[in-house]
Amino acid sequence: MIGISFTQASMAARKRIALVAHDHCKSFLLDWAERQKDKLAEHALLATGTTGQLLHQRLGLPVESMISGPLGGDQQLGARIAEQRVDMLVFFWDPFEPQPHDPDIKALLRVAAVWNIPVACNECSADYLLSSPLMEQAHSYRIPDYPAYLSGRR
User: Fold this and answer.
1) Residue 137, helix vs strand vs coil
2) Is 56 labelled as part of a ligand binding site?
3) Which residues cross the membrane (predicted)?
């Protein structure tokens, strides 16, 4: 990537996992989360508004809830990613329905790519991520070197 340099960050063994689902995909996310409850219980969970409430009710696990996605919850999660306060994004988005907040969704996925965090967009990819040995250990990964960017040392 031209114009920005990179540095290393360390992701802790206990991950901060953001969970998001469009309305038509909430049942898929809830079913998946119930199957993966034991693994999810080992990590900190956060979610957009309605999804977070539903996950907490279904799993009985603590879930930090943002506001609803269309009201700014996607942007709240994006800010957390940029602040390096989210380690993984599980986002079951609906590929069949246009969303009124599509720009927010695109921005959330973009910031996840910029900050090099793992993203799962469906049950299969989420299963693969949770089954990775990296889920249970700390590891280093590449992120933008923002202090170097600010100082002009790109």
Assistant:
1) coil
2) no
3) none
